[in-house]
Amino acid sequence: MHVQFAAFIEYLETERQVSVHTLSAYRSDLAKVLEFAKRQQLDSWKDLQVAHVRQLVAELHAGGLVGRSIARLLSALRGLYAYLVREGVCQHDPAAGIRPPKGARKLPKVLDVDRAQQLLDSPIADDFAACRDHAILELFYSSGLRLSELVGLNLADIDLQQGLVLVLGKGNKQRMLPVGSKAIAALQQWLAVRGQVQTQDQALFIGVRGRRMSPQLVRERVRQAGARELGQHLHPHMLRHSFASHVLESSHDLRAVQELLGHADISTTQIYTHLDFQHLAQVYDQAHPRARRKLKE
Q: Is residue 93 part of a domain?
C-alpha cells in the first residue's frame, strides 16, 4: 500500500503540479488511512471496503475531527482511488457516496440595529471615495447583497425612481430587490460625484482609475469602515446577515427573507430563526420579572 501511496503523491507533485499546501494535505489525510489499514490488517488498497471507510469516519469524528476535515480526507481518498483505477490497481472506490458527518452550524455574526445605525449615520466627507463607500455600506445593508452581486452591478441595474436593484445571484439567477430610502439618497450622492473620474466602465462602483471595484477592494473598504466607526472587524457578509436578521425580527416572514437573500433552499435561511430566537430570549430574560435564570448569590 505504501508503494502505491508514494506513487500517487509523486503523480500529484510532478504531473498534476498541485501546490505545496495541497500536497501536504493529501499526505496527512492519506497517512491516517494507512494507519487505519494497518490496524485492520489490510495488505492492499483492494481490501479497503465501504464498511472500512465508514468505520474510519466514525472513529475520526469520535476523536474530535470536524466534518470539514473529514470531507477533505474523503476527497483525498477518492482522488487516490481514481488514480488506482486508472493505473489498473483497483476496480472500486470505497469512499464513493460516503458523506462526512455534519458539524454544528455556526450562527453568523451580526450587528444589532443600534450598531448598524451608528455605522451608517456617521458623518461622511463630500469626496469621491467617501461617497462611494457610504453608498456601498447602505446598499449592502438595505438590500442584503452578496459581495459578488454588489461588485457585478452596472449603472443600468439600479432604478432609483422605483427604488429597485436588479441582481445577478448564484447560478446566474436574477432577482429584483427593493432599495431603501437611505440607500437611494446615498446612491444619488455617489452618482453625483462618480463623473469626477473618466471611465467607459458601466460598473456602478468604480475605483479612482475608473475600473470596476474588485471584491478585495470592497472588502478592505468595509473593513476600514468597521474599524473607524465601530472599532470592530466588519465584512460584507456581516452586513448581509444583519439585513436578514433585522428583517426577520420585524416581519417573522421566513419565505420573504429567503426570496430577498436569493436562497434556493429555505433551510439555508432558517439559521436566522435561531438568531431571532436568541434576541427574543434575551428580551424575555431582561423584561420578565420571573424569567432571570442567573441569580446573584
A: no
